[in-house]
Amino acid sequence: MPRYDFHSPRLFVDAPLAAGQRLALDAAQANYLRNVLRLRPGDAVLVFNGRDGEWHASLTDGGKRTGALAVGEAARAQTPPVNLHYLFAPLKQARLDYMVQKAVEMGASCLQPVLMQHGQIARINRDRMRANAIEAAEQCGILTIPDIAEPIAFDRMIATRDPSRLLVFCDEAADVRDPVAALRAARASPAPQPLAVLIGPEGGFAAHERAALLALPNRVRLALGPRILRADTAAVAALALVGAVLGDWRDN
Amino acid sequence: MPRYDFHSPRLFVDAPLAAGQRLALDAAQANYLRNVLRLRPGDAVLVFNGRDGEWHASLTDGGKRTGALAVGEAARAQTPPVNLHYLFAPLKQARLDYMVQKAVEMGASCLQPVLMQHGQIARINRDRMRANAIEAAEQCGILTIPDIAEPIAFDRMIATRDPSRLLVFCDEAADVRDPVAALRAARASPAPQPLAVLIGPEGGFAAHERAALLALPNRVRLALGPRILRADTAAVAALALVGAVLGDWRDN
Questions:
Q1: Nearest residue, CB atoms, B225 vs list A227, A230, A249
Q2: Which of A58, B186, B188, B227 has CA 20 to 30 A from B243's CA?
Q3: Other CB atoms closer than 10 Å to residue B66's CB: what's the count?
Q4: Is B6's CB within 8 Å of A224's CB?
Q5: Are A106 and B141 an interchain contact pair (Cβ–Cβ within 8 Å)?
Q6: What pTM did the predictor assign?
Q7: Substitution target from A236, A239, A242 for chain B, most B beta carbons within 10 A
Q8: For A19, phi and psi rounded to 5 degrees?
Q9: Least CB-CB distance to B236: which of A3, A226, A236?
Q10: Are residues A195 and A109 in the same domain?
């Protein structure tokens, strides 16, 4: 597969992308390219919009506060996103920022906050989550911005769950001797299956929440090793195992 | 295994630990317990020193700026650390702090900065690394503080390497179709083996560094999925896979 150069300036835009197009930059984008990255007219940028793949572009002339991009050739075709929902109990802001960025790097296609009994946070700023998701995608060469779902109550998540989506939930109380074997046993077929990974609050699942999860069909309960992990660490660890055993890490 | 309560105040101390002992707190520890956590005389704390396991203790009377702990009963016996060295190209400070904390959570027994051609940072603050390691161990119920090694030049790391320690190095240019199978193939025996995980700089390995790594015996070259990961994300992902396939995640 084409490998992405970590150090090319890369910008998410909303507009459709095609060769020859001119993209007006908003004030934040112009500031980022001209004053943070110190690009000059003619300098190269990669742009993507989550739908039309990645394109070469160059900065065109403009004042300090505005600017535009001229879109040139296609760089990479849009890749189909992994069908991987990341469900999590919201954290306080700085660690939530970090967790969102990490989930995007790990390829989540949807970020779903779930309100649970022992969670500490009930309100989240979806705009800020989206800004963090865009930043992570820009920095890591990812072509799709995940959906940022409205927070949902745990009971409603259980009631509305699609049973064809394998749910992997991480529970430090699980007596799992081999997490790779547990995931492998859940592989329904060699074809990719829709996946969801749930990381609970750092206070742990409430007893009725654990019971509801265990009663679900098509689920895997996983312990992530013998040490307790912070929720943002558990996110990366679980998404790595799921990616490697069930996701798209096997075809790269 | 005994599970750790995430929310107990937990303090690393240097002194030997035994029942009935009195531990004088230094100014920073006293400030943390009395003014940050707002504990009062008689309140419970868990203490550990990396050697003698974990002990129940309680705050004894004292002024605002000093204090002492009375050590009571043993809480957990010292566990043997995993023999897992984490080798990494130093990052800039905030992300290095984070990476150190994550490596401790993931059970690394030694943190070894390695200076590589495309690394951006050559000097590191070992005291700050140690403070971050202690903080992560305190927060996550870990009983051992990893060694913080002096930075070492890449060539010297290669020249002085113990060939009996399996080296897993993460290289986004690797053509690995199944990272779990690659790790499993490197399992020498069912017994635990000494392990090392190397995460290179975000600029990637230089050609001569990659060649030197590939020429080593007892090494595994691993790609961590089809997306590019930041170095601190790659650390958690790699340590999760290594823990699950070769480390101590299988016995918990």
A1: A249
A2: B227
A3: 14
A4: no
A5: no
A6: 0.91
A7: A236
A8: -60, 140
A9: A236
A10: yes
Q: Are B220 and B174 in contact (CB under 8 A)?
A: no
Number of C-beta neighbours around residue B15 at 10 A: 14
CA A252/CA B227 separation, integer angstroms: 9
pLDDT tier for residue A252 given thresholds of 50, 70 and 90: very low
Q: How many CB pairs under 8 A join A and B?
A: 140
Q: What is the CATH number of the domain that holds B160?
A: 3.40.1280.10
Please, how many CA atoms are within 13 Å of residue B147, restricted to the half-sphere of its CB?
Answer: 13
pLDDT at B13 over 70: yes
Residues A61 and A98 in one domain: no
Q: Which amino acid is at B206?
A: A
Contacts of B142 (CB under 8 A, 6+ apart): A227, B104, B105, B107, B136
| Shared-domain flag, residues A88 and A55 | no
Q: Report the residue count for chain A.
A: 252
Q: Is A226 in contact with B244 (Cβ distance < 8 A)?
A: no
Q: Are residues A207 and A119 in the same domain?
A: yes
The maximal CA–CA distance of chain A, rounded, in angstroms, is 62
CA distance A234 to A231: 5
B109 and B65 inside one domain = no
Phi and psi torsions of B208, nearest 5°: -70, -30
3-state secondary structure of A87: strand
Whether A240 sits inside 8 A of B236 (CB atoms) is yes
Chain A, nearest residue to B138 by Cα: A228
pLDDT tens column, B16-25: 999 999 999 9
Location of structure tokens 């940022």: A148
d(CA A19, CA A73): 6
Q: Looking at this protein, which amino acid is placed at residue A195?
A: L
Closest CB to A249 among B4, B7, B179: B179
Q: What is the ipTM of this complex?
A: 0.90
Domain extent at residue A215: 84-245
Residue of B7, B178, B240 lying closest to A237 (CB–CB)? B240
Contact A243 B225 (CB under 8 A): yes
The count of structural domains within chain B is 2
pLDDT in tens, B150-192: 999 999 999 999 999 999 999 988 887 789 999 999 887 777 7
Token reading at A19: 């060769």
| Partner-chain contact B179 A248, CB within 8 Å | no
Work out the minimum CA distance from B244 to partner chain A, whole angstroms: 7
